[in-house]
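Good morning,

Both structures are done.
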Amino acid sequence: MLNNKHRLFLAPMSGITDTSFRLLMRGLGVDIVISELLSAESIVNSHKRTLSMLNIDKKESPIGIQLFGSDPNVIRNAAIICKDYGAEFIDINMGCPKRKINKKKSGAALLKDPQYLKDFLTIINENLTLPLSIKIRTGWDTKNADEIIQIAHETGVSFVSIHGRTQSQGYDGKSDWDYINKIASISNIPIIGNGDILYANEATNILKNTSCHGIMIGRGALLNPLIFLEINQLLNNKKIDINLIDIIKKYYEIVLQKIDIKVQGIKLAKIYFWFSLRYENAETFKKDIFTLKDSPQKIIEYTLNHFNSNLPLTQQTSPNFLMGGHG
């Protein structure tokens, strides 16, 4: 499924990577986008809100839908429905560390029993006409990604995204890129590395000096929506002809076109707040912007005024922000 042009991935992030944010990022240098994690069971049961989250614009292509669940037959049936909505591949969430997901034997809990996982993936991929990928961690409490990728290869999985922590780590410590590289170097299928990539130079170093086919960025794109363009600039000497003010305006236009009017304001406020975290006065911005959540027009006016004031970058942004938001 992947070719040499498919190297930069937007990570699935709960509550963030809806059609509006995916469209924004597709215009800002990312190669492949993936939806936030969606319940396969809710899709099969025609849950109205979940089905609304399957809205896909053709400009998002190539796009995958990320599913979670414990019943492989339900996931396969949900995948068939996703194809009708425009999904070009299906990604199975096997990395979410949240207890409410894991206790239902889904997310990272699937890494506990490799033999069960083999049967699980075999059932999902049986007669599935879309490529299948999986997003995993390095293991549950000990690292066993080498075993998992072999199972993925045997069951016809197209590529594997690996977050460089175990489930038991949650988001503590640092992503283990040495281990990800080790796995990528022995894998028969493409490996996409994920975890703690916040700067373009970090990304290019991984792409140039590891065996990873590509990289997946989540929080880094919220802190700096220009990150994929900056990576392309470093790799291919592509000039960046857009700035943060342009991006703020573009996202406003997309939200007004694509998002239900009832939630446009809160959607704008959330994303603009994340954009603000690299700059001074982010807490003041947060306090003010959410008081305007009922008025998209007031939000865009306030945000443009805030970012037009030549704010200095802050050194205080914690790399732990949004921990737990990844699908």
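Second structure follows.
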Amino acid sequence: MTTHELLSLIAFVMAQLADVLTTLRALRHGKREGNPIVAWAMRRFGRYGWIVVKLVITCLAAWLALRAGLPIIVWAVAGLTALVALHNYRLVR
């Protein structure tokens, strides 16, 4: 694994963590999940089960991108996820 790939994974993991934590915070403040896929996972797998589903799917996507030699995709997903986390944070600050 190259340094570039490792850094993309670190950014990806941190963004995913920020998204999960800010989503949980927003939900505690009465907000609703805006992503229909995650909203379905919340209904189907419960209060915390959706986190496992989200992380499995997103980590699989990151792994596939790195296997294909496309760390730029991991960077892009990390960036978009960080923006979602920022949006969540601003909803309840």
